[in-house]
Amino acid sequence: MRRRTLLAAASVLSLSAMLLPAAPALADEAANIAVVEAYLAAWNAHDINAAASHFADNVVYYDSSVGTPVEGKEAATSGVVASFINAAPDLKWEMQGAPVASGDKVAFEWKFSGTNTGAWGDGTAASNKAFSFTGASMFEIKDGAIVHQSDYYDALGFFKQLGWL
Asked: Does 3.10.450.50 match the CATH number of domain 23-161?
């Protein structure tokens, strides 16, 4: 009987080890969430350089409304971050609920709002219209830096609010 009890206890411990994540993984996930939160804070401070400091040199930034990824820190900084911050200097990017993390991935839903008072990076003139739309982003973090970001949102609704459609 004692042998069966010990075997059962060993089985429960083995099963627990398989089902429960190791403490370092949880610490890494918390660190990855912190990177994403700091990145969001930089956007909301309208600090292009601070936002870009969270990118790895080889970052890939995918915006679903564009369809082709932007590759590299400089291209992601000038083509996405600077474009949005310069076009909407009052922008606000808010997490809606808590982010979800698994290993090196972090995802969250968001609301993005502001007023388009500046020209866009591609030269499109300001519409001087307010906008607000929701979406979701997924990040991959390696060594404390964003190596991949994918944004999914209602581009049609966003474009209509700006008067582009």
From this structure: yes
